[in-house]
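Sync notes, pocket subgroup
Present: LS, DG
LS reminded everyone that the earlier model was apo-only. Rerun requested with coenzyme A included. Inputs:
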Amino acid sequence: MSLTLRYMQLSDIRQVATIDVMCFDPPWSHESYAFEINESNVSHMVVLEEIIGLAPPEPTRRRSWLDRLRRKGRGAVSALDGSGVILGYGGLWKIEGEAHVSTIAIDPAWRGKGYGEILLAGMFGKALQLKAQYIVLEVRVSNSIAQSLYRKYGFSRVRRRKNYYRSDNEDAWDMRVALDRDTRHRFERLYTKLRLQHGFLDSYSRKSRPRG
Ligand SMILES: CC(C)(COP(=O)(O)OP(=O)(O)OC[C@H]1O[C@@H](n2cnc3c(N)ncnc32)[C@H](O)[C@@H]1OP(=O)(O)O)[C@@H](O)C(=O)NCCC(=O)NCCS
């Protein structure tokens, strides 16, 4: 298995949107993704992709090969179209000194394996590369899993926004982390540990945004 963090491309939208509808209400439209990828000047969209290094199946072994993919997770079956499997995605807007995590999600079939952390670390590294002074985001008050991930990277709650989510009027926490020296050092330690643990290739956080 080979994991890669890279900039999102138009051809990823189908897989990304499939994950989005399982994670958010309302999901983003395909047009929104296309805008963020190709037109926005402030957006840095990322995907975490798994390339499955399996040889093409022989006809007699086709059923077990398919079964193996299906056991690995629903998303893996889309590798049949010849591309990698997108495990999750995220988005970062950089406007002046602020970096804003616009979205982050992992396919439900692949959660709890450290992949959400890889995405957040990638966006954290991107914010540093772009010389942001701080990172902000909004999170549902009930979303303790995401809040725990953000706290691990130094985010803290700064403000409660009443009825922030239109679908059900749930409140949001504004969370924020200043990119000061201590935070950077902590980030470098966490990032190095993640790289050692997962051996992923990072073609996002230290690369420039490709021009479409
Ligand atoms: C939030 C999300 C991206 C985390 O992704 P993930 O791959 O499951 O998380 P990871 O396995 O990388 O875990 C990273 C950290 O998240 C927290 N976490 C993950 N699973 C958790 C659980 N079941 N209970 C509590 N904390 C948990 C922990 O802090 C964990 O760090 P640790 O391993 O050192 O304890 C994922 O749950 C998701 O896609 N949720 C739906 C979309 C969403 O809510 N996005 C956030 C919008 S603000």
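DG: Residues 2-203 form a domain with the Aminopeptidase fold (CATH 3.40.630.30).
LS: The CA atoms of residues 18 and 107 lie 9 Å apart.
Action: DG to write up.
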